[in-house]
Amino acid sequence: MKDILKILGTWKFWKELFIMTAGMAIAAAAVYYFLMPSKLVVGSITGLSIVISNLFMAAGINLKVSVVITVINAILLVMAWILIGHEFGAKTIYTALILGPLVEMWEKILPIEKLLEPGQTSLMGDIWFDLLCFVLILSASQTILFHINASTGGLDILAKILNKYLHFEIGTSVSIAGAVICCTAFAINPFRLVVIGLIGTWINGLALDYFTAGLNRRKRVCIISSQYERIRKYIIEDLQRGCSLYNVTGGYNGHQNVEIQALLTQNEFASLMSYLKANDIHGFITAGNVSEIYGDWNQKKRKKKKIA
């Protein structure tokens, strides 16, 4: 109980709770305003929920998509607890269970009927624009959640189960699960719409990879300078980042020197370049983008600056 209260009392908990709620509200808006009116079935639990809801409506039973989403996600979370393990985490449980209620929230705040013109069946009036808007908005939401080690649940759970028991790569697992869900749309949609859904699933993966790479991008900076000690101190003490020093020999003149390498954010790189310019520090500088980092770079706690 004390551990729970300790977690609830941290700024990190409330900040991530807000981010998860906002990210899922964005995803719910994409579902309600772009996916549901066009009846597109993109590879997701939401798409499967649309199929099930329409089948029940055809049988004369009014079953809301938001209710189906909540029920399916609850079942999948139980499966994940049993088949994957307890490590799946409270974040996924929270985000998965609030998607359905958030869809209903948008329905009450701003019903889609108020945005549609007479005779218009979807918000953009064109199925391809609806698909593109949905995919881009959903991918942005997923990127936000993945950045804080959360997810939307649903399809991610199925992918993890396939990965663990059938030993597929996680990317292949997501593609297979998404394609299977898309194919369930044959029960309510014509062939053309199913193909559009499959294309949307593929675009969603590409957009997610692009947004994630952009959010995680870092600068790998290499500097050769006789004033390397000043640069090293600035990186460690002001930017509060680590760096590596290498002895190098010039191939042209044979001079011995020291090269500094560091991984910095975009803002930190800009600050470093401003520092070098303001202090008239010369050197040979190269910088390249790095989209993936493995190790303690992201997890390492930043040191507090000493007050003189």
Low-confidence runs of at least 5 consecutive residues: none
Helix content: 55-70%
Strand order of the largest sheet: 2-3-1-4
Oligomer designation: single chain
Shape: elongated
The rounded Rg comes to 25 Å
Q: Can you tell me the number of structural domains?
A: 2
Main sheet specs: 4 strands, antiparallel
DSSP helical segment count: 11
Summarize the structure.
This protein is α+β, with helices and mostly antiparallel strands. The chain is built from 11 helices and 4 strands; from the N terminus they run H-H-H-H-H-H-H-H-H-E-H-E-E-H-E. A 4-stranded antiparallel β-sheet has the order 2-3-1-4.
Explain what the structure shows:
The chain has 308 residues and is an alpha+beta fold. The protein folds into two domains: 2-215, no CATH class; 217-290, Alpha-Beta Plaits (2-Layer Sandwich). It is 60% helix and 9% strand. It has helices at residues 2-8, 11-38, 45-58, 65-83, 90-109, 127-147, 155-165, 170-183, 191-216, 228-238, 266-278, and strands spanning 218-224, 244-249, 256-264, 284-290. It is elongated and about 85 Å long.
Reconstruct the topology from this structure.
Layout: H1 2-8, H2 11-38, H3 45-58, H4 65-83, H5 90-109, H6 127-147, H7 155-165, H8 170-183, H9 191-216, E1 218-224, H10 228-238, E2 244-249, E3 256-264, H11 266-278, E4 284-290
Antiparallel strand pairs: 1-3, 1-4, 2-3
